[in-house]
Design brief:
Elements (H helix, E strand, L loop, with lengths): L5 E11 L2 E12 L3 E5 L6 H9 L5 E9 L2 E2 L5 H7 L1 E4 L6 E5 H13 L7 H14 L10 E2 L5 H15 L3 E5 L7 H14 L5 E6 L5 H4 L3 E6 L2 E6 L1 H10 L1 H9 L4
Parallel strand pairs: 3-10, 3-11, 6-9, 9-10
Antiparallel strand pairs: 1-2, 1-4, 4-5, 7-8, 11-12
Helix pairs in contact: 3-5, 5-6
């Protein structure tokens, strides 16, 4: 992980099959910061996440994204991962026959590149330490990836991946979706254990409840593909009280 890194998005426009979804979004995230991006369904939150990771379905028509001055949009998805980006999916994929441990070791080696693979002993030590940090049963590592996992276990596994890969910037796409209160607290506690000066976090969410546990430094409201308002965690509380219709009315009236 790199301390003092910066992810800069400037005037980003993104289309899907000719339909513009993101319409001029600008955002700067530094390591050590937690940014929450909130917005109603269809506002472009997940589009932003997948665009940053390089999903081919999302076409960047204008704007730029740089990571420490390097053009992120010019990188392939695997290059972006090696550069330090990580995406926690809203709906993690099940892979029968591949254990969590094998998947994690393969992912680490893919990021490190040929000739710099992690040794078996180093990997085992690191996995044990991270699972202890996240209060996870060691037997979890021998289960098939997400196969038969509950919603909370799938999301907890995403946090374990984050811990093992140690990204510079972690993007969490509606990680709170479908979680009960207990699972939400477990996942949030895991993120709180990992966040720090070497990692920046972008939390994409529809609801304020996960932010009660993560306590973001900045909250941004995304409406119709644009960030229309930014503030501290009190902005999330205001949204919870007034709802997204209030934001839409403020935008339409020109007050935002």
């Amino acid at each position: 992980m790199a301390e003092g890194s910066k992810l800069v998005i400037e005037d980003l426009h993104v289309s899907v099959e000719g339909n513009e979804i993101i319409k001029g979004l600008s955002l700067e995230v530094k390591t050590g910061e937690v940014h929450a991006i909130m917005g109603p369904n269809g506002s472009g939150k997940s589009t932003l996440a997948y665009t940053l990771m390089g999903h081919p379905r999302y076409d960047v028509t204008e704007g730029s994204v740089t990571l420490d001055g390097e053009d992120l949009l010019d990188m392939e998805p695997d290059e972006r991962a090696r550069a330090g980006l990580f995406l926690a999916f809203q709906y993690p994929t099940e892979i029968e026959g591949v254990t969590v441990a094998n998947f994690l070791r393969t992912a680490i080696n893919a990021r490190r590149g040929p000739g710099n693979e992690i040794s078996v002993s180093e990997f085992a030590k690191k996995l044990r330490e991270k699972m202890e940090l996240l209060d996870m049963d060691p037997s979890f590592a021998q289960r098939y990836l997400n196969d038969g996992f509950s919603g909370g276990e799938k999301k907890r596994n995403e946090i374990l991946q984050m811990a093992m890969l140690e990204p510079t910037f972690a993007i969490m796409d509606e990680t709170d979706s479908g979680l009960d209160i207990d699972a939400l607290q477990i996942v949030s506690n895991g993120v709180n254990q990992l966040k720090g000066p070497h990692m920046g976090v972008i939390v994409i969410t529809h609801y304020q409840r996960i932010l009660r546990y993560l306590e973001p430094d900045f909250v941004h409201v995304l409406v119709d593909g644009r960030i229309v308002r930014s503030g501290g965690k009190e902005l999330a509380e205001e949204l919870e009280e007034k709802g997204y219709d209030w934001i839409r009315q403020e935008v339409e009236s020109g007050r935002m």
